[in-house]
Amino acid sequence: MSAERILIIEDDPSIREVLEMLLQARGFQTIAAENGETGLKRIEEKDPDLVLLDLTLPGMDGLEVCRRIREIPGKAKLPVIMLTARSEESDVVVGLEMGAVDYVTKPFNNQMLIARIRAQLRRTKELETASQPEKIFLAEDANEPEPEEEILSQHGVTLNLTQRTAAFHEAPLDLTFTEFELLAILIRRPGRVWSRTDIAFKLRGDDYLSMDRSIDVQVANLRKKLGEAGKFIETVRGVGYRWKY
User: Fold this and answer.
1) Quick one: 121 and 15 in the same domain?
2) What global pTM score does this model have?
3) 109 and 156, same structural domain?
4) Average pLDDT, the chain
5) How far is residue 148's CA from residue 192's CA, in Å, rounded to a whole number?
6) Are 188 and 79 contained in the same domain?
7) Residue 143: CA atoms inside 13 Å, Cβ hemisphere, count?
């Protein structure tokens, strides 16, 4: 099996070199880009499995790069981990809204960075497997209709888990990857109260601690995008959230 490809978009050559050495020593292939424009080209040329993205790039900053990555056909689910200084943590919220899946503050801990990269790669593989259920076709099955797509529907909100589309009364909803997953968690179990930690664990698995603090922001953004249906996400004070019956 070929090694996973990690794209490093970082303008500081010393940090870029350290990251390349660290990742290569752990068995990853690395692709490097010194700015956002080059990084976007590398994504289309090299098809990386994950992107490490510095927020403070010259010219096109990391937030804009993240937004443009999501516009590349077929890259809506490409995991992006932001590299940020502690003074830039206010930008992390914006980055998560634009589709980044995690962030690491500089100076980063090598073991923590590798653990987060592996967690995201593992999660991506699990999602790909879940969205492509295995079926063995016999000759007599060849003319059978395709199995129905899994649909979740509550209060006019409909999620197609196979096509990963969302709508409210048939009007499409433009949700980020994380917002879609969050909404699916809530709608699957209407009435169940989910703590922030529970939600973060469902979204992030073993690396849930890195996301726990951003759940409130994700919920607020999701409510806004749902419009009238946002009222069905209820806050349970001191506990978490639930989808109203």
Assistant:
1) yes
2) 0.58
3) no
4) 83
5) 26
6) no
7) 1
